[in-house]
Design brief:
about 70 residues; mainly alpha
């Protein structure tokens, strides 16, 4: 738990990459996302309606940004 960053907004505590489940901080999650061409949940969680997204790609993130701006 000491590796949990103060800015971590991830609520998926069941994920094996969540910082509370190991001592490597955010690095494993970031590495997985980079490999898959995705953006970590913590970035999405900064936006309204993040739970409405269909995926974690850069395009999904951009779409959510646009939707939030058009409110």
């Amino acid at each position: 738990m000491s590796c949990l960053s103060k800015f971590c907004t991830c609520t998926n505590l069941e994920c094996t990459l969540h910082p509370t489940r190991h001592d490597q901080g955010c690095a494993p999650c970031i590495a997985k996302n980079l490999k898959l061409g995705e953006i970590p949940s913590c970035f999405f969680n900064l936006l309204d309606n993040a739970e409405s997204r269909t995926g974690d790609t850069f395009e999904d993130f951009a779409d959510l940004i646009i939707k939030n701006r058009c409110k």
